[in-house]
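step: validate -> pass
step: tokenize input -> pass
step: predict -> running
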Amino acid sequence: MSWFDLRLGALLLALLALPACGFTPLYAEHGDSAGVTAELAMLDVRAPETDLGRALKYGLLDLLSSSGNPPANPAYLVEMTPSLYEEDVAIEPDADVTRKNVVLVVPFRLVDTATGKPVLRSVARSRTSYNRVTSEFANITAARDAQARVARAVADDIKLQLGVHFNRQPRAADATL
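step: predict -> pass
step: emit ->
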């Protein structure tokens, strides 16, 4: 038996054992219940009316529902308070900054619209960097691109955290089993 055959056999054995460990995909449908995807589609998002706030809000709405629009009667509201700052990373001897970090920290909370009470509080963060060059136009463009990248990463992180939250909640269909 070759080394390849042993590795293939071990892989097949691991794949057969995977369902026995209780692993289920986060966004899978669970029997009669709607699942995490349907829960996420029932969320509305509130963010500051700034370029960054709008990027976060609409980026997250695009991730939460297939239409990218908030529901008419949301079950929950995601409230975000983003904070963006830059750090000088590479500084030349003549004090020119040649590289910057862009850091986005977004505390958020999930509020039950029926009761008005928060059911989840968390923070999402992302960091990226960009090079600074002699062209000011290139620097402005690179900074905006870096801000867009951190906003997308934070929206992905918030969606993941919300998905985990809803996945851990008991479902009515699961309680009847």
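step: describe -> DSSP finds five helices and five strands in the chain.
step: cleanup -> pass
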